[in-house]
Structures are given as structure tokens and as C-alpha cells.
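Build the 3D complex.
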Amino acid sequence: MLPTLDARLAAAAELVRPGQPVADIGCDHGKLTAVLAASGRYPKVIGADLRPGPLSKARQTLEHANCQDRAELRLGDGLSVLSAGEVGSIVLAGVSAQTTWEILEKAPWVFTVGGPRIIMIPATRHSELRRWLWTHGFAFVADRPVQAAGRWYAVMAAEYTGERHEPTFSECLLGGTGSWPEGAGYAAWQKAKLPRMRLGVPDGTPLADEIDRLLKEGTGL
Ligand SMILES: C[S@@+](CC[C@H](N)C(=O)[O-])C[C@H]1O[C@@H](n2cnc3c(N)ncnc32)[C@H](O)[C@@H]1O
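Done.
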């Protein structure tokens, strides 16, 4: 039986480039790997994880979905399981923002114009991942707010262009989420963290002014 994807993984699946190989890094339960494999839309589907335990769960999921022959499972750290140019899309879902950028930093071939699309669902620190992507030459293809299991997530897709952008605090906080109907809910959730954040910022600094402005704006809900 084909597994059901939660809203976050379903949104990530929509962002995978069709017709090109794809890798689900940190595949764990293997649900996304199985759905991608079963779709028949990709010439190669790779599921990979750092640990053998998750990989055996993924193997079981593939067997239950009867698509074990349509995906390869690989054990290893981050993108070390892939060769340069092997895939058109890389999904990094459910790991922290820091793990996400550390995994990317260890694979210089990702920083290539025309390189893979990186689809990310950071478990934490969305704003910091956005800043990292912009300041390292990535451009956003999508930044979609999604609610799953009562929590807000941002499903991001980015491609390397080499053009670096120094974003403002507000850009990092909300990214492109405002263009989605769910954007207001996401913004309210992000802005609810601001009063606590503001406590650590000295008065009179540009950051303090920006946070104060956002607080004055309210949530818009
Ligand atoms: C919380 S699970 C996320 C599973 C799935 N991607 C999702 O979003 O539902 C995180 C998985 O990432 C794996 N992981 C963490 N660091 C990794 C790394 N450096 N390389 C590959 N996998 C990693 C963990 O072993 C774990 O199975």
C-alpha cells in the first residue's frame, strides 16, 4: 500500500523536477521515497540516511508499496552518497536548518549554476536557513507555508545562481510565504516569537527598529 504523505512532504513532492533523478536525503521512514518511486515520474529515485535503522524502515515502506525495485537505498552522510550531476533534485526534509546547510557545505558540486534543485523543510530556524541560502548564492523557487500535525513548516526550494543577496530581517522571517493563502497564519506564528527575540537586541540598533516596526504592524490576522 502506498503511504500517505503529510502536507509538508506532499508539498515537497510537488517541487521535485519531473523527468530527472531525485534523492531523498534523511529519508527515515521512506514515505516520500516510496511515493516518488511509485509515481514513475523520475528515472531514478534514491533514498538515503545516515543510520541503518531508518534505512530498514524505508526498505519496509518500499516493500509495502511494492516499489522496492524502483528506488535505491543508500547509507551515508548527507550528499556523500551522490555523485556530482547524478540527480536533478535533492530533498532534505525534517533535519535542522544547521544540518541542512552543513550537508550542503560538504558538497561543493551543489554550488554550480544549473546544479540540482534543493528542496528543504527545516525542522527549526527557518529564518536562518533563508539567510544562509541568500548569502550563499541561492535563489528561491518556492517558499510555501504548510501546517502539519498542528505545527507550521516552510517548504523551500532553491537553486544556485551565484548571485548573493544580503536579506533584511523581515525577508528572512517570512521569505516568500506571503504569496500563499496560508501566509497570514505563518506570519502570525513567526511574529509571535518577536517579543522574546527583541529582549536580546539593544535599543537604537537597526535590528531593534526593524523588529519594533514588525511588532507595530501586528499579525495582520
Ligand atoms: C526527523 S527524520 C525526517 C524524515 C523525513 N525526511 C521527514 O521529513 O519526514 C530525520 C532523518 O534524517 C537523518 N539524518 C540526519 N542527519 C543526516 C545526515 N547528515 N545525512 C543523512 N541523513 C541524516 C536521520 O537519521 C533521520 O532518519
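The domain at 7-166 is CATH 3.40.50.150 (Rossmann fold).
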